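cache lookup: miss for this entity combination. No prior model stored, computing from scratch. Input as submitted by user K.M.:
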Amino acid sequence: MTTETFSTLTGSGGGVQFTTTTGAVTYNFDTLATTAQAGSFQGLTSTSFTPPTMTVEAWDAANTTFLGTLDESFGRRFQDEFSGTGSASLSMLATDTDVSLATRTLRWRIGGTYAFASKVEQRRWQTVASGEESDQTVTLSGRGIIAEWDDAVVFPYNGIDARPISDQRGFAWWSPELSTIGWPTATVIHSGVSTLSRLDPPVPDPWFTPIGYAPINDNAGADWIFSAFPPLVAIGSNLFRATFSSAAERVSIYYTASSRCRVWVDGIAIADWTTQPNEESFVTAFRATPYLSSGTHYLAIEVDVQAWTPTLPGFTRGILSAAVYGGGGRGTPYSSANRLLGTSSAWRCLFYPTVFPAPTPGKILSTLLSEAQARGALTGWSLSCTDFVDSAGQPWSDDTAQVFRVGDSLLDVLNQMSDSSIEYRARPVGKVLDVYRKSTVTVATGVSYTAGASLLSLEEDQPL
Amino acid sequence: MSSLRNAILTRFDGGYRTDTVAASISTHGRREAFLSLATLRSSPNVNQTVQQYLSELGSGVTTVTADVVPTTLATTPYVGQWGPGASVTVPRPSNSGTGEVMQVRAMTVSEDDNGVLSFTPELVREAATRRSLVDTNLKRLGAGTLSGRSASATLATDIDPDARSGRTGTTEATFTKDVLEEAESPSYAPTDYYVIQSIFVTLKTSGSTNTTWQVKVNGVAKSFTMIGYGSGTTLTMGAGAGATFGIATGYHLVQPTDTISVEITGVGTNAAGFLCRMTLAEW
């Protein structure tokens, strides 16, 4: 025991640095015996380094209420993983009254610092030697608290009653979760489809009513649009998005493109490519007939533009014409009265994007977490990242699409995303998930280990 | 398992591709691996990702497991305010003990009977963490999963099985008459609900005077617009008109109980070879 006189105190956890009459000195202690204040101070160990000890605390399921310290536990061990669940285990005598406290969450401290939090998922009783007084031990083990994300699953977009229906939940440029704010608006190349039907050459106007386009007297309902003006007909994809509202009904989506396209509604693919690559679609109309639930729907169409051979000189090329009709069906014609949407300058588009955008990881996780919590799952959990920046304040990348299966657990989601776009780690205090942009986590510590001094052993695999 | 890989077969949402590192192949021989980028479609995204993998795997990924003995508070995990995700410097035996900065991927802390803690970090060279535990992922790939740890990665969204889609259903009704006479054709009975969407008319031999005709539904002449020749229930192909003409329809609807016929109401002088082809679109 030493007594020092100090003037300032800095640091946290188990290490506290004092500026004393003899200079800066680092002390280590487990319990602060006296309120720190300037002046004489007792109760500290000497300046020589004392390795920290481990303590384990029992907390409630919410990890917010302290229940007690498991002082008599032994065989304590935890593994704290970056982008993994981790695990922990300890043993106690069955007669230890603290056993009843350790039922939900364990917090692990190194020195005075909370290091890890784990769930009590398994309690195993073991008889050491029958007949002895302390003949039973209880081993408590479980994964890190992030394992609770296993208790919520991916639901369909807009819930179980939503239509269209899919066994997958995608987050990509075509999903509702990706905002199109900031996307340019489309350019109308030909206003309305031609009132004329297609003619054999000479061709007065190639942007005719596609063969099979059945809505009656609604030629003005859908424009031929492009993603920019003047049109630059290069080979590649252009992305178009629009929204519309419908009642709960089966709708008809008419679409055609130059050269071909495919269609999503509410992030669910409803129509594959209209034609093979290098084949033109625009001569004929295509139709998809999904059943939709009532409400707002998000239509996304990818147009794959190929070289136009032979070219039609003198004609400006539109690349997409599409319209959505409701309230009709077999025996009831579609007309302008029941058109829900048609291609127009109000559509949003991306002009030959080099990278297809996708919702940020923060947006994906906040969406799934809020949905789960609305169902009553994952209570108490929060994210320290936002839709725009990660938990370190770095902007998210927005170029990685994710597709999950409905029914995947949110832990599956985290693991899948950690393959490509995130790192994650649960804080030991409370239920906060830190999520970082992958490849950018560089917490330099300045810590350096030296063989023979601070390293007991080192195993290095043979990479070659 | 060696983690060196210099030839990657990649499955992305557009097919397969292979990428190689020639220098590494020359030195170490071809070491292949499979990588799923199932959710990536655009080439720039795929290029970027594959090149990152190759840059890391071309010289192998080193994983180091250390048993460390903290000698100061700063070097003590957690107490020193660092843990998984942080970087530390450790000597690399494969590089004459030269220290290298590596990232802590996991930290195992265990306590012996005397209460002494041991710290065992699992370390990966920082550069390699750009694709985090590639080595592990490849092992998992080898075990049969498609995308690293993603048991559920899929190539693309499946299509709503309830949404039928495809080319709009159409059918054609054709009426021909080689030797023209003023008469009504046999009836065509549609088998579904259709819109008469377009009509093409050809005279194989044009006449020196007009040829007139009507399209009838259930015996009633319907009004159409004929390009360049006006509109009405009686359609006229002028003298000398022997080419193909298109007709914009009035979107007349027909159903299975209806009949469609064509009646020639006036024969042009020497006109012959009448062909009328209607395109009907389902609705």
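stored under new cache key. Helices of chain B lie at 22-28, 43-57, 134-142.
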